[in-house]
Amino acid sequence: MSTETKESLNFIEQMIEEDIANGKNGGRVLTRFPPEPNGYLHIGHTKALCISFETAQKYGGKTNLRFDDTNPTTEETHYVEAIKKDIKWLGFEWDGEAKFASDYFPQLYAFAVDLIKKGLAYVDDLTPEQMAEQKGTPTKPGTNSPNRDRSIEENLDLFERMKKGEYPDGSMVLRAKVDMASPNMLMRDPIMYRIKHAHHHRTGDEWVIYPMYDFTHGQSDSIEEITHSLCSLEFIHHRPLYNWFIEKLGIFPSEQTEFARMNVTYMITSKRRLLKLVQEGLVSGWDDPRMPTISGMRRRGFPPMALRAFCGKAGVAKRENLIDVGLLEFCVRQELNKTANRMMAVLDPVKVVITNYPEDKTEDLILINNPEDESAGSRVLPFSREIYIERADFREDPPSPKKFYRLGPERNVRLKGAYIIRGETFVKDENGVITEIHATYFPDSKSGEDTSGVKAKGVLHWVSIPHAKEVEVREYDRLFTDETPTGHEDKDFMEFFNHDSLHIKTGYAEPGLVKAKPGDTFQFMRIGYFCCDRDSTEDKMVFNRTVTLRDGWKKKK
Fold first, then answer.
1. pLDDT of residue 522
2. CATH 2.40.240.10 is the classification of domain 271-341+471-548
3. 152-164 and 105-117 helices cross at what angle (nearest 10)?
4. pLDDT at residue 554 above 60?
5. Is the distance from CB of 35 to CB of 68 less than 8 angstroms?
């Protein structure tokens, strides 16, 4: 392989290529994605998914989907199904059936018994406060629990009785006997099992003791013979314990490697904090289009390939970084520009009467659906004497006449796909607001057949009033007003919640838009990209603004 090619590899790919070259694991590559089913996946998980699935695919390997379902009080089957849906929507396929840490509860229990028999684990009945006190500080070694030297026989008996449900929640734990003086606080006799008399979404009431994450992660990887356990940087301090358990148990040596997690401006990537927004009714649910969840972005109209492209551009790094949300929106625009059909909708309408166009005439015009995609074909659009245009597209007296290319008195403008019209007069209400514009058209100026010789610098979108369909349009701003809402030690992230992040408008669209189905995306010409929402009905079409046509967001200080 050329040096140039090697230099383009990220550090994970370099590691895997070295492993393959050295014959490690027989050249086999098996990664895994282990979400906890206690919420929906978010933008940070998207990066983890891309790294695990795309890396394995690149080297002819496979990826397991394994749910880390070891906390029965927060996990639900509903979340399991939502996570599966998100992964498939992104275009990833896991190997075989989805797996669950709960599948391995009997084996994990056996591992724990093995460590007790080896004198490497003990049952402790200290209170949480006592345990925290004797654990020490990062600069002060901990002290051994008085229960650390219990006999193997006593520990086996107590652990068995814990399993049978003889003790109440919180009364006992099983701890690993590692090193209470370790500079790594996670190595100071960490908890392996705790008592929870709670119904589990898969195992029911079979278990009343549940393994902790650190006693589940590595062993589950080992059971599945995961070759490359790829996880975010927050788990780097867990790696020594991950390796300690594998070494002491003498099981398959899966290898953990960490990468920088995805942090995006104006977004939060904490399921606990996102759940708070849902529970307090600040958003409509996990799939609210303002949420940084995969389901929320899907509902908003973000294409899956745009999310994957964004993760690719963000790269794979070893250090934490902050990615501008503008890069995500750029990737969305790039993808939608290629795939979204063009339609016309007017969101702040003002009526235009073309006085010299026959009152009883309706004309069918042909417009192409997508200039970037010939296969998208064309559509028929009705044109009539009365149309809507955007209120901002007419000025009685524009401040910079030479730079104003839209409609005004004695100003020409082309209607997209139709004719050139000239503004003549207008009508105002008692408040001085223009309610109706009168214009004339040039019959010989039809698009594609223009022989009029009339010039018009501007092009406006429009809809025919007799044929227009009313639509509800939901426009979104940032969910938070600060680039890093969770990055302030002295402030709660909720202080930055943007209570003005949703605006609902009623507009009018060309009639063909009523055929849209939830999830269909369109470019509303000159306005932005929009997605048909699941709230749409036969009587009311609802569209979410996906992104603007260009980066027009304001950074709020």
1. 98
2. yes
3. 160
4. no
5. yes
Residues identified as active-site: 36, 261, 271
Residue 88 parent element (H or E): helix 77-89
One DSSP character per residue, 304-354 reads HHHHHHHHHHH---SS---B-HHHHHHHHHHHHHHHPEEE-EESSEEEEEE
Mean of the per-residue pLDDT values of the chain: 95
By 3-state DSSP, what share of the chain in percent is helix, strand and coil, each rounded to 5?
A: 35, 25, 45
Q: pLDDT at position 401, please?
A: 84
Neighbours of 44 (CB within 10 A): 19
List every span in the chain annotated with CATH 2.40.240.10.
271-341+471-548, 345-461
pLDDT tens for each residue of 8-39: 899 999 999 999 999 999 999 999 999 999 99
Q: Are 8 and 1 in contact (CB under 8 A)?
A: no
Q: What is the DSSP letter of 192?
A: E
Q: State pLDDT tens for residues 345-397.
A: 999 999 999 999 999 999 999 999 999 999 999 999 999 999 999 999 999 99
Quick: pLDDT tens for 510-536.
999 999 999 999 999 999 999 999 999
Q: 304-314 vs 325-339: helix axis angle to the nearest 10?
A: 140
CATH topology of domain 3-259: Rossmann fold (3.40.50)
Q: What is the DSSP string of 29-83?
A: -EEEE---SSS--BHHHHHHHHHHHHHHHHTT-EEEEEE----TTT--HHHHHHH
pLDDT of residue 209 exceeding 60: yes
Q: Give start-end residues of each CATH 3.40.50.620 domain in the chain.
A: 3-259
- Burial (0-12, 13-18, 19+ Cβ within 10 Å), 107: middle
Q: Which residues of 189-208 are buried (b: 16+ CB within 10 A; e: fewer)?
A: bbbbbbbbeeebbbeeeebb
Q: Tens of pLDDT along 496-517? A: 999 999 999 999 999 999 999 9
Q: Which amino acid does the sequence have at 442? A: F
CA angle, residues 470, 475, 481, in degrees to nearest 5 = 165
Cα torsion 166, 171, 176, 180 to 10°: value is -160
Q: What is the pLDDT of residue 8?
A: 87
How far is Cα 305 from Cα 311, in angstroms, rounded to an integer?
10
Rounded to whole angstroms, the Cα distance separating 235 from 219 reads: 15
**345-461 CATH fold:** Ribosomal Protein L25; Chain P (2.40.240)
3-state SS record for 250-298: CCCCCEEEEECCCCECCCCCCHHHHHHHHHCCCCCCCCCCCCCEHHHHH
